[in-house]
Amino acid sequence: MQKNDHANKTKDEEYSEYYDEEESYYSDEINEKPIKKSTQTLTQNKYAVLSDSLKSDDSESTFKSTVQSKISNKLLSTNTSKGRLSNQQIYAVTEPKISSRNFNKSPRSPISRNNTFSSDEDFDFDQYEEFVSGIAEKNQLPPDDYIESVEEYINQCIPKAIEHRNYKAAKRYQQASQNLQIITKSQAADVQYGTKDKLMFAQNKIREINEKYDKLIRYKLAEFNVLKNQLNEKISQEDQEFEEKWNSPQQINPFAKPSRQLLNLRIVENKYAEAGMFDEADAMRIRADKLEAQETKEARQQLFREMQKAFESLKANQNKQIEGLNDYRDREIHNLEIKRQKELNGVEKFAKRPDVANPTPKVRDAKLYKPRQKRYDIELKSYTLNLGKFNLKQVIHPETNRSPRSARRSPAI
């Protein structure tokens, strides 16, 4: 019995040495079958269960199939109160969170984990793995509703792959994480460029509208100047015709007729002259001249009044035409300004929108996974070898009571 105790002690010491090593290698001579679940330690139980899928030569299967099969089929649903790990503890993809109750456990006890994906019966690993493959191989983003969850899924699978020493899967997830970051940054640049493009479009549109209506206004002003010149020529011609009209005999003769009294005086004057009564004729002439001068003055005044009245009427008509032309110009320009402002209001309202006025919008950026070295140090300390099953009869030979004769016959082993 003392020999057995010594042998057991030696094995325990050797096992402890292997357990405390930070890096270990699997031996080809060790049996690959998992050890029988026992209450030796929770950590031994955990790595004994994962040994076949992560250490065997059949490691061509990806990390995804290992996690998916373990979670979906629930092959290791054991009672944690008896010192065994549950599916949630072994295959949870979230980072470990140490609670206050874990400080009472031994250093080799596993840390409780929050199971984000494995406990969800509706979670589709195949779909998420397709998303990861699309990102890693084709730079193809999943639907917008899945981007954040796929990003979280990738960042949770990387440490699990490293923990299980499946570096091929870890490299794949890391490539997907890097591609996701590059694509999202590219999309952020596209959104920023698109925002600047929208702002530039609004500014160009405003400039085009102003140029268009400035051109129309210049066209209307040029048209007005032509009409104004034509009207000025027409006014000048009417003034000239008016002056010729009122200087013509036909226009003056109606006002040049003498009165009946003046005609009688001239008749009497002629009769006195023919009769040789020159003194009487001269007196009659003086009287007739005075009356003629008075009538001429009155006729000229009347002619001036009539001409002034006609001229005022002509000028009133001409001014009305000028005012009508000015009103037409102002009305046309006013209508163009209203149309200009109506078009500018829509573009200015578009340019004042937050997504257009701000050329640097905030866009979600993918978080690149960064390993936590301290966490891996803790897990390496809990790393154990899969020693497989041993037949204790091959290692420990129980002592038997032998007679002195048999002892002499058989050599001691």
TrEMBL record:
It comes from the Eukaryota. Residues 1-13 have a biased composition (Basic and acidic residues). Residues 14-26 have a biased composition (Acidic residues). Residues 1-31 are annotated as: Disordered. This is Uncharacterized protein. It comes from Trichomonas vaginalis (strain ATCC PRA-98 / G3). The lineage of its organism: Eukaryota, Metamonada, Parabasalia, Trichomonadida, Trichomonadidae.
